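Page 47, continued from p. 46.
Same chain as before, 109 aa.
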Amino acid sequence: MSSAGLLLGALAAQPASALSAGSADANWPAPMTKFIERSENCMHFAGEFNGDGSARDAEINHRMDELRCNSLPRDLQALRKRYRNNSRITTRLDAYDDDGMPRDAEPGT
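Result:
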């Protein structure tokens, strides 16, 4: 198996939470923790996408579909509504843009 094949296999087998940089603090409610981890992982994969139609891009697209990256904006709105009376959580959610991505992060970080 090629090194690219090994990399793709390892990536597919790795749980999304293992890629997280650890910003999803255990002190947040579970829906918040899941959102934070998904957002970080989606940002990571967005930075790896080349747009060249390669097998790597196909794998990245697959992982982003599994993470439901396209639903981050809707999920962020739902969290903002659900926790609108919790200032600690609303302050944390303000760190995300309308696409559900961290405002201060660059893709691939």
